[in-house]
Automatic annotation (TrEMBL):
<dbReference type="InterPro" id="IPR014265">
    <property type="entry name" value="XrtA/PrsK"/>
</dbReference>
<keyword id="KW-0472">Membrane</keyword>
<dbReference type="InterPro" id="IPR003594">
    <property type="entry name" value="HATPase_dom"/>
</dbReference>
<keyword id="KW-0067">ATP-binding</keyword>
<keyword id="KW-0812">Transmembrane</keyword>
<keyword id="KW-0418">Kinase</keyword>
<feature type="transmembrane region" description="Helical">
    <location>
        <begin position="233"/>
        <end position="253"/>
    </location>
</feature>
<keyword id="KW-0902">Two-component regulatory system</keyword>
<feature type="transmembrane region" description="Helical">
    <location>
        <begin position="194"/>
        <end position="212"/>
    </location>
</feature>
<feature type="transmembrane region" description="Helical">
    <location>
        <begin position="97"/>
        <end position="119"/>
    </location>
</feature>
<dbReference type="InterPro" id="IPR004358">
    <property type="entry name" value="Sig_transdc_His_kin-like_C"/>
</dbReference>
<dbReference type="Pfam" id="PF02518">
    <property type="entry name" value="HATPase_c"/>
</dbReference>
<keyword id="KW-1133">Transmembrane helix</keyword>
<keyword id="KW-0547">Nucleotide-binding</keyword>
<dbReference type="InterPro" id="IPR036890">
    <property type="entry name" value="HATPase_C_sf"/>
</dbReference>
<feature type="transmembrane region" description="Helical">
    <location>
        <begin position="66"/>
        <end position="85"/>
    </location>
</feature>
<feature type="transmembrane region" description="Helical">
    <location>
        <begin position="134"/>
        <end position="153"/>
    </location>
</feature>
Amino acid sequence: MNALWPFLAPVLYLLCAGSALALAGWLLASPNDRGLAAKPVAGALILTAGWALFFIGLGSSAIGTAMALSVANIAWFWALYRFFAHDGRDRIGAIRSVLIVLGFLELLLIALLVLQLIYSEGGSPARSFLSFEMALRALASIGGLVLVHNLYVGASNAARESLRWPAAGLTVLWLYDLNTATVAYLSAAHPDTLLTLRVVPVIVTTALLAIGSLRDGANLRFGPSRYVAFRSFSLLIIGAYLLAMVLVAQGLAYAGGEFARLMQLGFVALAAAAALLVMPSSRLRGWLRVILSKHLFQHRYDYRAEWLRFTDTMGRAGSGASPLRERIVQAVADVTDSPSGLLLVPREDGGLALDTRWQWPQVEVPAEALSTAGVRFFETSRFIVDLDDLRAGRVEAVPAAAHPSWLMDELSAWAMVPLVHYDRLVGIVVLAKPPLTRRLDWEDFDLLGVVGRQLASYLAEQASQDALGEALRFDEFNRRIAFVMHDIKNLASQLSLLARNAERHADKPEFRADMLITLRNSADKLQALLARLGRYGAQGNEALQSVAIEDVLLRLAERYRGQHEVAVVDLTPCMVRVDREGLEQALVHLVQNAIEASDELSPVILRQSCHEGRAVLEIIDSGIGMSAEFVRTRLFKPFHSSKPGGFGIGAFEARELIRGMGGQVDVESREGLGTRFRIALPLAGTAEQLRSLKTTQIEVAQ
């Protein structure tokens, strides 16, 4: 420590000087806001910084350093006097007298130091100077401590809050000086170590003064509870309303007349009816919140209350809690007092689709709610879109793909909040207009952005859980199918062997022929079953061929004649390149589902058209319909069946078969209204061009 101290001491004194000058500059920047003692304290801090610089240049026992200390103490006594002016006690005569005496003592010290500079040869006079100097410093320190005690103890409770920190700082400073002077007087020698360490209490004093200045500024800020302010303002309005009622009623009574009492009763009845209509209005409550937040509070939102409400909404659990995705929409809507909202999530083939409605059943949302280009914009910009600004032309940086026409035409739609997780868009919340519509500002954007990022993590976690569960179910399914295929393969081998043995050993030719035919047919069926079980995925091994799509639809309608009405309308003859058996199988799955969801008297409609190189098939029913959540999470997921005993792979197999032919399946459904499956298949010529292009790309890559 002794070796490090010569290097550490200058650093501490530089820190002391720098912090004192910084605090002084901050106090002088706005002295009127820091109290009556701001300028004197700043001056004392500047002189204390000068004492620290003298110490670095001259040392602890130098006369110049001691003189700088006395000058700084005079400044601190003046600052202490101004602290008494905080509550008007600076006019007390005794306080002035003591401060004058303390200032005179410090001036005597300066004069004594000048004499010591003249008679600095050492010996008895030098020791006498030292003893007298330390006695004066001890007296000055004792006087300062007495005044600080009176400053704090004699102050009112309100004033003590402001005087606590400067009183503590000055106490630390003068208590250390008193101890140093006592040790020096008793030892009759300069206590160089104590004089050097004086930088520590000076730094502590500076820190306490800084804390006191900051707390004083904070205590002047009005920060009432938003809940209390809103309730108080509401009660004030109700009181004013009741007072107005009384005044008007008394005025009617004062007017007198034959119908005065009748007029009083009529006015009271009308006023009560108006109160019942207006007071519960959500629009009125929204107006009150906006007015109070705008004119009474520094920020629009009470962030503590908002975060507690958000946590409560997302943390709900149990059978009575809403689904997670509905709570996600509600959590965003609660921030802006929006009455309803939508959640759009990514589709498997790009873009966004409707996932969840929260109290907004009337809005029409297409199958592709947002295109892939719009998704890219939100992923890169994380921009929160104010749709009213777009409609008014106040914002031009948002591309058309980010605000589709169906959303712009829905005038009740207000804002789009992206949910981005690790630079990947996992959803968008569309908010309806609140009862009191306003423009979104920077504070709305900041809070909605933070909430959106937090909610994106909820969605990403749920997606990971779903993917893990589906992978486990597929693993179990694959294990079961492996055993089934193994057993069927063994059976097919045994039947083939039996057929060969019967061909060699059968006695009767007629029986042998029938047996061979039966066994061979059984073997062929088993082999076909094996081929079908292995044909889940992209395309299987079936060859594609050109097929007249209208023939497939007419044949399908004929198949259900006598069971349920299947009507074919708007046929446009065209050729598609598909696996005919696979296409029929996919259509059978979808038509059968439509029949089971429909009433017996409600027909299933098959519609077909050709445009832009594709044949479009539509299977339409007016049955019970499906929710957006069911379509997203269960319709095309294996092992989820709404029918007792169902295996839940019909819709999944239909979509995989269509995809294997280069097609696409979209679904639009509304609960209670019905469902529309839309299948798009490439025409024969288009399919050949795509196949040629893929072949060329593979050859170039190789």
